[in-house]
Amino acid sequence: MRRALVIALGLLPSLAAAQGSIGALGYGYPTGGLSAAAASMGGANAEIDPNSAINPAAITRSNRLSVMFRFEPEFRSTDAGSVRANAVVPRFPAFQVTGAFGRWVGAAGVSTMLDRTWRNQYSDSLVIGGETVASNVQIGSEGAIGDARVAVGYVVSPRVQLGASMHAIVGQNRTVFNRTFDPATGVSAISQSSPFGFTGSAVSVGVVAEVLPDLVVASSARFGGDMGVELRGTEVGQGKVPTRYGLGLTYFGVRGLALFGRVDQTSWTDIGGVATDSTSVFDATDLALGAEALGPRLFGANTALRVGLRQRVLPFGLNGASVSERGATFGVSLPVSRGRGQIELGAQRMLRSVTGVEEEAWIVTVGLGIRP
Amino acid sequence: MLRSFRWIPVLALPLVAVLGACAEDLDTGETCPLLCPGQEIEIRDTVLTDIVALDTNLFGFPFQGSEDPLLLASSGDSLDVRPVVRFDTLQRLYARTGVDTLEPITDVDSVFLSVRLSAAGLPVPADWSIEAFDVFDSTLVDTLPLQLEPLFSPARRIGTYVGDTVFTDSLRIRIPIDTTFFRSMLGTPGHRFRVGLRVRSSATVMMRMEPSDGDDGPVLSYKIVSSDSTVPSPRNVPPTSFTPAQPSALAGDLRDFHVVVAAPSQASTDRLIVGGLPASRVYLALNVPQWLTDTVGVLRAELILTQEPSVGFLAGDSLRLDGHLIVARASVTSLVRAATLLSPANIFLPSQVLVPSDARTIRLNVNTLIRQWNTSNPARGDRTAILLRSGFEGGTPAAFRFYSSRAADPALRPRLRVSYTPGTVVGRP
């Protein structure tokens, strides 16, 4: 029946990778489960930060009921050759409730593991039936892969705390693809809407220990279980939730100052078949240094000033090359009601690069914590 | 405690205001496609031959009584089309002022049949005339050409209109009807007034006539001659028809119709004919593979027909080719019946203006059709068929000719060219 078959490979911009930003390649940008305070120090204190969804043992440092959430818009500029694209991406990456019961502390919350929110509109052309046809493309994605965590910590002694948590990996990416043509060409528009859903599980364990006076060592690990991606009830990919190991050091030896260091390794390649073979996935090392100093008293309580440096590799690359991200962070914690509440303000100046492409981003972090 | 919390909103409000002003702006299309590589989507260009399950000509359209417009045509022995207008209901009695009883009409004058003619795009020479004939015979079926034609005899001629002007647009004419005949007809119970019209000229002549379904259809007027000059006379009497008795709706359709006495034959075994007199429609059932409608994204699908030049009347003039989706369910087994259950033109198949005398490759875009079959007929329980018809069906002798699936040269047969993307789900990195 097919008398002739001519295959024309048109370079249709990829919906999968066509996010126009190197910070949100693949399944998106890893916000890292950090609290607003930790983000202000590049994540350097994440291993002992009770409001970061990293080390379950760290929740023991929040010894009473508290509620924390975080809003984090990103102002981004991407330079690719001679073109520049600016974008503003709003994110609500974390929410957590913590409560203490004697030596036991529990926490539950949701954080964003990978945020995949982007949209592109542009014009290009395709070769259809030997004829070059102009078209307009509208593509986009909304949603995220989230990490719903329930954690429990136990205060073994004032110097040693342990913790464990269970993670449910949930979320959805709602992708849309529309390509339209001039009606005079006789080419029909293509439209596709694909809601990808994610399921997965993992467990974490952690420890926080003051191994020397004023020196705290914290470490945690997340062991990934099965992870799947489905489309309209049909599983289209399988893999594992990425395993993660982290180590943090904290030094309180200087009065009014805390110094933090952290190294974290995430095996993003564990996601395996959740991503297609054409996606460049990289295991990522995350390095961070940070400091927190007592600031001036405000409303009857101390403020905190924070700075940090961060360098890491993002999980998804471009054309086989990995994307590196480095940046400086700073922030301030404003207590209210004599410590019953706090407003965390911070900013992250991040620079990302991959072959031929540079991206600058200001990520503004606003966190609100309440301890009734 | 509540009092000390008042600072939270005091501080949060300006922050929310500042950040809220940062409206979402996700569009980074400027960096595409430079920064948007990775996933290549195939565009396949395929020509499907043997796509035709059944292609055939269906003659006899439009059905008698549904012509719009009616045609008057004459060209020697090769073209002869004659309209018939029925006035089966006429006023045959009247009442004088002050008299309670009805009296038969015994005398009339000023009997006229008024018709609207159109000559747009048709050959109308300077000398032409229209003759009116009494074509009523209760023993004959006047819709059949063989039975009707003998009634157009000199003995039955009841009026003549001599065209004294060349017109190119439209013209309403009044054809005078012989009053002696009309008086006699009124006085003869059972004699219905049915008028056959025939155009004559020394050259080829064609005119279109507005049917009674239109706004300016034929009407009859006559004046009652009576001692009472105040008796109103029938004016602008519209056509009526009482036959056939069953189905009754058909009688209404046959208030006026035309009869093709002679026309160039369009019959062909291996050509698809669209148009002509009586007009032919092309029934084209397609063998659409399931994968095409169900598993791929069709960018462009074109049904390719190869046109054979037509010769004959008006073959060099432009004519619209309409395509329709046949919406008849599979239970409708009659092709002729199916050929009347159609979607509107220019919905699923775009209409095209073509010249019958051309020899071209015609590409009918069937994108919408393919998608329609995917959504409305996924199990292929109903036919996947289209119908081609002339945009001036019955109003012109011109016809398109296309090579059918039985053409000797396979390259000339209908085929389907499709550009599509395989059914790849996009969006998963």
What does this structure look like?
- The complex is a heterodimer of chains A (372) and B (429).
- Helices cover 1% and strands 67% of the residues of chain A.
- Chain A has 372 residues and is mainly beta.
- Chain B has seven helices and 23 strands.
- The N terminus of chain B is likely disordered.
- By secondary structure, chain B is mainly beta.
- The two termini of chain B are 51 Å apart.
- Chains A and B meet through strand 1, strand 3, strand 4, strand 7 and strand 8 of A and helix 1, strand 1, strand 17, helix 7 and strand 23 of B.
- Strand 1 of chain A pairs antiparallel with strand 1 of chain B.
Q: What structural keywords apply?
A:
heterodimer; A: 372 residues; mainly beta; 14-stranded antiparallel barrel; 1 helix; elongated; B: 429 residues; ten-stranded antiparallel β-sheet; six-stranded antiparallel β-sheet; 7 helices; 12% helix; disordered N terminus
Q: How many individual β-strands of chain A?
A: 19
The total of beta strands of chain B comes to 23
Kindly state the percentage of residues in helix of chain B: 10-25%
Please report the distance between the alpha carbons of the first and last residues of chain B.
51 Å
Pattern of helices and strands of chain B: HEEEEEEEEHEEHEEEHEEEHEEHEEHEEE
The tally of helices of chain A reads 1
What is the gyration radius of chain A calculated from CA atoms?
23 Å
Structural class of chain A: mainly beta
Largest sheet of chain A: 14 strands, antiparallel, barrel
Q: Identify the biggest protein-protein contact and residues per side.
A: A-B, 91 and 59 residues
